[in-house]
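stage 2 :: seqdesign
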């Protein structure tokens, strides 16, 4: 069904289509029987797919990557499509509109997207309230989805004050999310990637770890990294994980590389996602897994457009995988195909 609709959807601006599709997904799920029908068609319930990673029990290892549900509007709806976990955000302390439009571009010939959204979101208070409302809406005995909170800094915040923005998001979301992702790897906030350098990154992660306990509870903290890092920088990342004691890595974010692209929008600025990232993101996963000897979990994301793509990331050392661009190109049926493939590993 989705593949029949996709040519029509792809005629229109991708950001407008995103809002159109998500609005109607919410409407469908609000209809009597809508949620049950969605789960019956798309979701896969199988104890064999359950996985425990960094102390959390995931109903399956396929998650929705950050960027799709920036403002925590679609948690239940995405769960009904079969995702085992949802990562909301990136959220910032204050609401911000993001960069000027147009800021998202399809590259169909490359099965890719370029975005320069710029952390557009309604602010951490809105996200926290919506996650709390989702948890409150659960029926007695109903299992909540695992929810990750992807946090960043406001554009107007200078890098020397960035740690305060991350602290504000961390403190506000602590009671409602299951894990955190520190995003210092988006190419769309000026200067943000400078925080990936070893010294500022150590300071940021160590500060969050010091705050990472409340009423005897701590949350797994993960670091999302760019695919454009050198092996030397990846060595530093592995060392930082060890020294700070954070829970793991998400590999990878979007890339600034434009190698081999053929689509019309290939020269647009922003982060590139989709099939062009498939090989590089898997390489990063494999390298980190090898040099760390599997010392920490890795969530694999980047260029997963098929069940085999996901399986390759698991084989390379990923414990879990996430979808975004592949979900847009292949539709919700991709989730079930991946889960069927992973059961055979």
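stage 2 :: out
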């Amino acid at each position: 069904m989705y593949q029949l609709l996709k040519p029509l959807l792809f005629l229109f601006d991708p950001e407008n289509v995103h809002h159109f599709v998500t609005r109607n997904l919410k409407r469908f799920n609000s209809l009597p029987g809508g949620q049950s029908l969605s789960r019956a068609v798309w979701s896969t319930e199988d104890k064999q797919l359950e996985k425990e990673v960094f102390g959390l029990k995931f109903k399956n290892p396929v998650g929705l990557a950050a960027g799709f549900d920036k403002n925590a509007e679609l948690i239940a709806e995405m769960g009904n499509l079969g995702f085992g976990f949802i990562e909301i955000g990136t959220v910032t302390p204050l609401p911000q509109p993001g960069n000027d439009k147009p800021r998202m571009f399809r590259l169909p010939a490359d099965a890719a997207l370029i975005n320069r959204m710029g952390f557009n979101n309604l602010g951490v208070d809105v996200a926290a309230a919506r996650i709390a409302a989702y948890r409150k809406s659960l029926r007695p005995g109903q299992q909540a989805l695992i929810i990750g909170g992807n946090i960043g800094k406001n554009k107007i915040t200078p890098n020397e004050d960035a740690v305060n923005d991350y602290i504000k998001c961390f403190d506000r979301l602590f009671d409602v999310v299951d894990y955190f992702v520190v995003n210092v790897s988006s190419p769309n906030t000026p200067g943000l990637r400078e925080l990936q350098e070893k010294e500022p990154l150590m300071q940021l992660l160590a500060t969050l770890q010091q705050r990472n306990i409340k009423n005897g509870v701590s949350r797994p903290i993960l670091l999302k990294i760019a695919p454009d890092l050198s092996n030397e920088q990846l060595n530093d990342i592995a060392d930082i994980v060890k020294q700070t004691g954070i829970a793991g890595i998400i590999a990878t974010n979007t890339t600034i590389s434009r190698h081999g692209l053929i689509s019309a929008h290939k020269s647009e600025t922003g982060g590139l996602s989709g099939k062009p990232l498939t090989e590089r993101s898997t390489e990063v996963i494999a390298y980190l897994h090898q040099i760390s000897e599997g010392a920490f979990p890795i969530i694999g994301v980047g260029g997963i457009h098929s069940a085999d793509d996901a399986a390759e990331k698991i084989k390379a050392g990923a414990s879990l995988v996430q979808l975004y661009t592949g979900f847009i190109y292949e539709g919700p049926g991709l989730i079930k195909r991946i889960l069927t493939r992973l059961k055979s590993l």
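stage 3 :: structure notes
- The longest helix spans residues 14-30.
- The first strand starts at residue 51 and ends at 53.
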